[in-house]
Every structure is written in C-alpha cells, then in structure tokens.
Design brief:
Chain lengths: 217, 217
DNA sequence: TTGGCCATGTCAGCGACTGACATGAGTGAC
DNA sequence: GTCACTCATGTCAGTCGCTGACATGGCCAA
C-alpha cells in the first residue's frame, strides 16, 4: 500500500494539510515525506478542534495519512507529540550555560537567567504556534503533567550544567529550579500579551519581582 | 460473593496485610472495612516490590481483596493512589496562609515560607512511609509527572490564598511557585537524611540559599 | 416487614500502547 | 541487470487502563 493508494476519506485532507509540497508529480518516494511533522500538525489541530481526550490516536494517524502504529513509532505516547520539540530548547539553554565566560560561575543565578534569554528566538519565530499549543495544554491536566515533567527536565539540565562549571550542588539545583519558575512566569505573561518579541522582557520582569520578594524575608 | 468467601490465593495475604483487625469474629459487615486504605497499602507495596509498570491494577485489587472496578471507584487512575493524600497537605498550608495576622500580607514570600512550616508535622509522623513512597516515585517518570501536577496545585493554592489576602497577582504567583521550589528542595534533603524532624530546617536552609542566590544578580 | 440505600461485584466495551512479522521501494555490489 | 540488504511503513493480535450499565445483598429507617 503506497501513500497514493490510500483511499479512505481523510487522506486527502492529510496530504494537503500543510502548505509545502505542491509539486508532487515527480521525485516522490514510496511515502509522503515528513511523517512526524504531519503527525505533529494533525495532533495539535485535532486537540484544538475537539479537545485532547476526544481525539483518538487513530484520528491523528488518519489525518496524517499513516497508521496508528506509525504514530507510536515517532512518539512514545499521545501526549509526547506536543512536547518532543522541547529537547531542542533545553539543548539551547544548556549550551548557553556551558559557553558563558569563566567568571560567570560566581553568580550562578544570574548565569542561569542570562542563559534563558538564549531561548527567546526559539519562541519568537513560533508565536502563533506557541499560543495555540498553550491553549490546548491549559485545557487538559494530563498535558500539564507532561509539561511540568519537561520543565523539570530543563531545571535538571541547567543544574547539571552549572555543576559541571563548578557551582555547588545545592546552589545549582536551586538556581535551576528558580530559573524554570521565572521561565514559566515569563512565558505566561508573554502568551497572555501580544508582542512576539517580549519574552525576554517578560522573563526579566518576573526575575526582578522574584528577587524583590526573596529579599523581603 | 462476600469478602470471606473469596478463595483465590492472594486473598489471605490481603486480609492480613496490615496489623489491625485481628478480632474479625463478630461485628463484621458485609465487606472488610477500609477498602481504600487496603488499596493504598497494596499499591505502594507492589510498586516497591515489582515497580509501577510491572504492577497491574488487577494485582493491586487482588491483594486488597476487592475487584479492579472498586479500585477505580476510589482512585481516578493507577497513579492517583499514591497522591490523593496530598489534598490534605494543601489544605493545611492554605489554611496557614489564610490564618496569618493581617500585617503578614506585607511580606508575601515570608508568609508563604512560614506557612510551609505548618506542613512539617504532616510528614514527621510518616517518615518511613514518605521514604518508601519517594523511592517509588523517583523510579518512575510517570509518577513524577503526577507529583509535579500536585505540586503545581499546591503553588496555585498558595497563590490564590495570597491574592485573597490582597497580595498582587504576580507577586502571589511568584511567591507560590517559589514556595514550592523550596518545599521540593527541602523535602529531598529531608528524605536523603535520617532525621524525621528535620523537614522544617531543611526548608529553611533551602530558602536561605535561594534568597542568597537571588540577591546576586 | 418492607423498601430504599449504598458499597461492591459483574460484564461488556473502547482506546492506549506493544511485540512480531510482512511488504516493497531505494540503494549499492557484483 | 539482478541480487541482497535496508528501513520506513503496514498488518495483526494481544494486554492493560479505564468506563458505563446493571445486578446483588447486607443494613437501616419507617
């Protein structure tokens, strides 16, 4: 069964679902390319349209023009399809921590915060996508669970990078966790606003507030 | 089918599984009492013995001497059996925030931290249980997800209570999140140590470190 | 006694996820 | 040119988490 043989009703939708690939005349392999990308888009759209729980993996696979089994080859579960891109984000932030000048290690909290700024272009390009995704996640506790797990992985990544720079264990752990709190708070303000380039500023403000609060008692 | 009729091999284990209830001669209702407690114990023990994923809900129900369906009447899912007790914890902390003297609202971060101290007796009584439970959770990402969700619910509870006292929205949100970070860090040190009464001190230390870090940059 | 309450049991079914095996275009070796 | 090998995908059967609908039978109040 080739990608073009498929004749169930949802296939047409799936193949034309994103803008690229109009000239599908020559040079077509056995299967439509970018199956995982199609699955990601199909999943996000269906989660938006009907809700996460009202969407079956079969639905997603149908819209993407693949089988359910293929979905599970790319994503470990139904939630992960919204989150696997975050590995790249974590990598960017951790790289920023590692590549800072040597003297930055003396102020681990500041180092962590500055490294978060490295993530802002990652999001600025995807403002609309980020908003849609955030709406879906906010509507479902199960998806929030997964988000928290990813954030904690980010915190651990930052903490580990700080430790590798010689920062003490407990300072590194706390700085990592605190950075994630700031990221989260800043992100929510950014999503709630309308300026795609404001993420860095939102995080900065959140951090300043946190520092002011911590100084109180 | 009454609780005493059951004759499959795991039933005996389940009925005698916890110390109480030796005199089961008279005064026995239709079913063994405290089904949810038996399920909680059975689940924690099985998760410890075989691991979370290697344990089926059927296993838990068998050991507790009930049916699988009964498990799902008490707990919304297989993870929740380890977490539903945390509602009580959140209530205690939120109550502490609400009942502080009026002038405490001026220093929301300090108020949140002091309220966390109200939770320490909750844990001191259950040190061994808490260690076993923490070990199980640490071994399974799926359980960590649920733990983070509960912690975020705690953060939201603290933030909401602070707002009810007149604290500004963003300060309340950040104080709630930060309090949870401190709770988490303190909890981990407490679990890693050997003094059941040290939780309060561990949290205090974590907070002091956080404040020192935040003051740096 | 009767009748309703309610914790539990029973049963059928859906959907998430997995392991094992089949298929067939693309690709390089000869 | 064809042979063998790869590898993304399809196919199929099965387990387990979880739910709705209905049955059962001690208990308690009228």
């Amino acid at each position: 069964m080739s990608a073009t043989d498929m004749s169930d009703d949802s296939t047409d939708v799936s193949i034309c679902h994103h803008g690229e690939f109009q000239p599908r005349i020559v040079d077509m392999g056995r299967w439509e390319p970018d199956a995982s990308g199609r699955l990601r888009r199909a999943a996000l759209d269906l989660y938006s349209e009907r809700g996460f729980e009202q969407t079956t993996v079969q639905d997603i696979a149908d819209r993407a023009g693949v089988t359910e089994r293929t979905f599970f080859r790319y994503f470990t579960d139904k939630r992960e399809v919204l989150f696997d891109g975050l590995h790249a984000l974590e990598d960017v932030i951790v790289a920023a921590v590692m590549s800072a000048p040597a003297e930055a290690s003396a102020k681990p909290m500041k180092l962590a915060m500055d490294s978060l700024q490295a993530a802002t272009p990652f999001f600025a390009e995807r403002y609309d996508y980020a908003k849609q995704r955030a709406g879906v996640i906010a509507a479902n506790p199960g998806l929030q669970e997964r988000e928290f797990l990813k954030l904690s992985s980010m915190a651990l990544g930052v903490a580990t990078a700080l430790k590798a720079r010689g920062v003490g264990d407990s300072a590194a752990d706390i700085a990592g966790d605190t950075a994630v709190v700031v990221f989260q708070q800043g992100f929510q303000r950014w999503i709630g606003g309308s300026d795609p380039d404001a993420l860095g500023r939102c995080m900065r403000e959140a951090y300043d507030e946190l520092a002011a609060l911590a100084a109180q008692g």
